[in-house]
TrEMBL record:
This is Cephalosporin-C deacetylase. The active site is at S186 (nucleophile), D272 (charge relay system), H301 (charge relay system). Residues 3-309 form the Acetyl xylan esterase domain. The lineage of its organism: Bacteria, Bacillati, Actinomycetota, Actinomycetes, Micromonosporales. Substrate binds at Y92. Gene3D superfamilies: alpha/beta hydrolase. One of its GO terms (molecular function) is carboxylic ester hydrolase activity. It comes from Asanoa ishikariensis. GO terms for biological process: polysaccharide metabolic process.
Amino acid sequence: MQLDLSLDELAAYRYADEPEPADFDAFWSRTLSEAGRIPVAAEFAPYDALLRTVDTFDVTFAGYGGDPIKGWLILPADRSGPLPTVVEYIGYGGGRGEPLEWLAYASAGYAHFVMDTRGQGSTWRTGDTADPGASGPAVPGYVTRGILDPHDYYYRRLYVDAYRAVDAAAAHPDVDPSRIAVTGRSQGGALSVAVGGLRHDIAAAIPHVPFLSAFRRATSITDANPYAEIVRWCATHRTKAEQAFATLAYFDGTSFATRATCRGSFSVALMDPICPPSTVYAAHNVWGGPKDIAVWPYNDHDGGGPEDQLRTIRVLRELFG
């Protein structure tokens, strides 16, 4: 069933349950400055994926703290000149898997860079990247790791990885660095929102049913994981809940969205209990660049499914031809 505000209310919704940290910009400026001292040092090793219509590279680049992050670069075998590129981030618990799982965008003629997710990749698709970062007591999952300090929080490391994945993709000679878009579903959508707000050299962010926005509202209206991991953590660490939400405010998609200048092309599902519609609209409604949103009234966290992929290709065609 539809579990959130009406469509008219969603279109007008503004998230105001948690103030943005006064030093939000300074925090992320310092974080990216520190990260930038370490070269991205992307390496592209040819990989035999047993596929004839694409060329695949096993990628390693330096993410947060110089940690090695894996990925795939998948290129159309029949190509000429540097290509428009889509950098894709992965949903909660998933990893980069096998190249044959990522053929849509290369088949449409684009370079496709898939970033592996540190410490994940053991839930529904395999991954190959460790997360060496320190963390305090956490509920099983990832969203409460290091939640008492924004400097130690898991998503600080992951957001920096996602930011640097764009630079890693741009380092390949078959990628046109002036024509890059970012996309992803759920957690991957959240990363594309964050990168869209942190970078001003990408053409578009295309987040599908994005996670990690409007934390206070999300934890009050859904019992579904991953937001429920935060609820369970706060229920156990009763006296530290406000400190946890103070950390989360540095990672809220709404704050990144306001700083975006590129196109934002969202999707939302009105029966989604995992990323409730108002949390998606919270980021969409304050997006700083041109924006649009596809609404799927009768879907839950699957969103538009393959229609979201097709919509991504249409956006890429509009932007890059």
